[in-house]
Amino acid sequence: MKNIIIIAILFISINCVAGIKKTPLPKEFFTCWKAAYEENDEKAKTQVYRPCTNQFGPSRFRLSIEFSSDGKCKYLHAGPTDNHYFVEGKWTYNARTKVVTVLDDKKKLAYKFKVVEAKGDILKVSSLL
Asked: Can you give the residue ranges of every domain in the chain?
């Protein structure tokens, strides 16, 4: 009897976990994105990114990050003397929580954000750092 109850609980638990909706990233996500901070929504605390091919107004520094489908990425970094250079990194995505984690070339956390919207020519995220 005890074994039947344990098996029933395991069966229910597995079905509940399997029922959690996992959202895959759309193919448009795998491109170069630039911060379109002019479009950020302060109330919703979201940051907007547009494809790097878009036309942007002048800016002293505009974060850009390129995601590859193989888990590699590169992002623009502003150095201590205001020089800009790309850093190679790796990224992961948790489809259940919609969280993207970016590690730099030294495996140190560089960015962590939740994907709010990713379609066509817009990527909206909320920072978790």
From this structure: 22-127
Q: Residue 28 and residue 69: Cα distance in Å, rounded?
A: 10
Q: Where do the H-state alpha helices sit in the chain? A: 2-18
Label residue 112 exposed, middle or buried (CB < 10 Å: 0-12, 13-18, 19+).
middle
What residue type is 47 in one-letter code?
Q
CA distance 39 to 44: 12
Domain 22-127 fold = Lipocalin (2.40.128)
- pTM over cut 0.70: yes
Which amino acid, residue 31?
T
Q: How far apart are CA 29 and CA 89, in angstroms?
A: 16
Q: Residues 17-75: pLDDT tens digits?
A: 444 568 789 999 999 999 999 999 989 899 999 999 999 999 989 999 999 999 999 99
Please give the Cα distance from 97 to 91 (Å, whole number). Answer: 15
